[in-house]
Design a protein that fits this description.
The protein is of the alpha/beta class and 122 residues long. The strands form 2 sheets. The protein has a 4-stranded mixed beta sheet, with helices on one face. The protein has a 4-stranded mixed beta sheet with strand order 5-8-7-6, covered by helices on one side. Strand 7 and strand 8 form a beta hairpin. The protein is globular and about 45 Å long.
């Protein structure tokens, strides 16, 4: 058996999260929304394309934000400060992290407090 790659990452969110998910992941981060398959639509949430992979925002009635576990999204090196500025202007927290030598990255939060890492390519 061989694992071929990562298909998707799912982040939990509270019921009624869809509009905020589209605003944050779609408009603010620029991810294209993917239409959920018909049998799963009634569950709520939203799916987004991240390159060849996907990010799923799934509804959890007992939602608690993930403060340590996180998705890490990679952007072009020149886009990292641009995205950080866009997030700050939207009132979203940005915490730069220089713990890894030669790696540019920051942490932010989705609208429900889940940790998100944004890391620069190259």
């Amino acid at each position: 058996m061989e694992v071929l790659g990562l298909d998707h990452v799912q982040l939990a969110a509270p019921p009624g999260c869809e509009q905020e998910a589209r605003a944050f992941f779609g408009r603010l981060l620029g991810l294209a929304e993917i239409e959920k398959p018909e049998p799963l639509r009634a569950r709520g949430g939203a799916w987004f394309a991240v390159g060849a992979q996907q990010l799923h925002v799934g509804v959890d009635a007992g939602f608690t934000p993930a403060l340590k576990a996180h998705a890490a999204l990679r952007v072009a090196a020149g886009e990292l400060p641009v995205l950080a500025d866009r997030l700050v202007e939207a009132g979203v927290p940005v915490r730069w992290d220089d713990a890894l030598e030669g790696v540019q990255r920051f942490y932010t939060e989705d609208p429900w407090g889940n940790r998100i890492e944004i890391i620069a390519d190259g």
